[in-house]
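COURSE: Structural Biology Practicum
ASSIGNMENT: Worksheet 4, Part C
STUDENT ID: 0417
INSTRUCTIONS: Below are two proteins. For each, the amino acid sequence is given first, followed by its structure token string. Answer the questions at the end about the second protein only.

PROTEIN I
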Amino acid sequence: MPDAVRPTVLILGGFLTAPPVYRPLTRRLLARGAAGVVVANVWTPDWLIASWRGTAAIATRSGVALRRAIEVSRACSGGAPVLIVGHSAGGITARLLTAPEPFPGRRFGATAHVGAIVSLGTPHRLAAGAGIGRRLNEVAAEIAAEHVPGAFFAPRISYVSVASSAVVAGRRSGRGRLATLMYEFVIGRAAVPGTEGDGVVPVAATRLDGARHVLLERALHSPTAGGAWYGSDEEVDEWWPIALEAWREALAARASGAPDAPETTAAAPNGLAARTATV
């Protein structure tokens, strides 16, 4: 029964992060009932390379981490599909792992192994203008939108989008001025004084069509921002129960014979199953 299973969690880090920054989040998820936690082995230099060569290598490294999480799930969660927590750009990477062929010659198609995708401050919607928004669009977000738009594999995969309204764009404070600049990079001219977000990604950019939307009030974008962030204790207490419920609903949908998600057509070279399957 889904209610009796504890999930194995895969954490996919955000742009310019490194695995050590997610150690406290790992401990907090284990303390709240995760059966096991795997953090993708993606480091800051990998993101720097990806900013000009594209994110195919990031997705491949994340696919290796997913294989490890699948092994942990077999040992700790009865082989149940993994619950992915993607921070920032890691939420886009999570969606790419479910796509049949997001990059030429690279098929992940991991729908059979993913029960939920929980994105924390992920810019699912980006501007087409200048700056980091345009570059992220080119290397990741546009690819995800083309191959796996919105909550593409629901209900067999549940989607939860977590955002924060902690920082309001404006000119009255240093943090507000910096937020204005960052929000403009992400959503372009749509960023105006009063735009709410987590200091880096505005709420509007996190809205993935068909996902459950969770809005926090005090979470900053980064674990190194000098305050509470998505992985802090009180914030995890807000979104984790929702994530867990969504993951269990996906398991129940599979068990009840919900229609299969669109099928991928070939075996993935990284060893992930290319066809959807029930738990």
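PROTEIN II
(use this one for the questions)
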Amino acid sequence: MTFAGTPRPERRWHHAATELDDFAIVTYRVCAQRLATHLPAGFTPREFAFDDGETGALVSAVVFRDRDFHFRFWRAAAISCGQINYRAYVTAHGEPGVWFFGTALDHGLVGVPRLLWGMPWRRSRIGITAEWDSAPARWRMTATDPQGTSLCDAVEDTSLERMDGFAEPLAWLELLTHPTVGWYPRRGGRVGTYSIWHPPMRPRRFTARSARFTVFEKLGLTTADSLPHSILAQPSLHFDIHTPPGRYTPPAVRPRAPSGGAPVPDRAAG
């Protein structure tokens, strides 16, 4: 069983691209009802049945080093730095995707997406190291900002086929590693949206020796003692980012084509 990924959308002159090095998705099992309190109306946590008979939701810290992040129209302005995206797996008015709580970036340009598009980004000092050829492989990160210090120290685990909460052997691969649409909170209670594309991941599974992410703790989703549900990592992964992000309009209020065809998408930037 393999996952073929999704078709690559046409690349536009205003899109961005980057290589993500030492890439890892650190996922936690959380209370779905508690997660729902942090979501806008119409957004619902995806729920999973776990081996212990309980149900719950999943959130992830996606950690990597941007290498040569650039807009296609301005490659000379490429940057490289550490980044962490904090996300939850949800449906928005029935559409699957991820809700972004925020992003930590280890670069002085962190204010640009915040000012231009109202994205919840903040500055953080992020260190990531990986030993992909050691036996077992190791992956580590630390991040420090005004909210506190987050960390993860993990070693490779070769038992990749089955994952708690997913009935099919590789059902987790599409959901955890390949969401292409996301939403985030904007000022004034509005919701923003953006999309990405990347080839299918071929991840290696890791187990945490220690881990904590203060963003999830401050949201009341995890505690300092919580252990990750899973860690999926690989040395490098290409990303297309379909900039600029847009304002999200729920399907019920989107304008429709005059002929009665498909809804007209709202992708206005700002």
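ANSWER KEY EXCERPT:
Q1: The mean pLDDT is 90.
Q2: The chain has one domain: 16-252.
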